[in-house]
Amino acid sequence: MSKAFIAAAIQDSIECTGVAAQQAATDVIQAIKDSLEDEGYFTLPGFGTFRICETKARTALNPRTQEKVEVPPGFTVRFKAAPVMKQRIKEHMSPAKKAAKKKAGSATNGSASAKKRDSAPKTEATPKRSAASTTAKKVATKTTPAKAAKKAPATRTTRRTKK
């Protein structure tokens, strides 16, 4: 979700101009920020709660150099979804998860195409062609007058230096 999405939802809901909807979205986001700074939390009923939490000092590992780095204590914003939101997401996501598991299970347990591939009668290998016959075909098909006419002439891209 983005600020533009929120502005579009406001514009569609109250039928106002895009500029007014953009300003309303900006004001709502600023109100959330102000509430977090003043009170340390912000609750949207039916959606969830944003709250500020302290983080402790810790030692982290630089993934590139594997060097240990000291991280100072700080603050972060955490979100906890409301029970209503959790239930709605659970209902919305469960059919998709079942379909994804079913699809993944049939692919790993042997799909129909894999069974066809395994049960197909084996055929003899085709005889290898000589190198001369394959290169002759490539040369014959590679350069055609139409393609040769479209190519630009080669130009020199480096400068010559005088001695």
From TrEMBL:
InterPro entries: Hist_DNA-bd, IHF-like_DNA-bd_dom_sf
Chain positions covered by the region annotation Disordered: 86-163
Protein name, UniProt field: HU family DNA-binding protein
Coiled-coil intervals, chain numbering: none
Compositionally skewed regions (Basic and acidic residues) per UniProt: 115-127
Gene3D superfamilies, sorted: IHF-like DNA-binding proteins
Any Gene Ontology CC annotation: cytosol
Keyword DNA-binding: yes
Positions with biased composition (Low complexity): 128-156
Pfam families in alphabetical order: Bac_DNA_binding
GO molecular function: DNA binding; structural constituent of chromatin
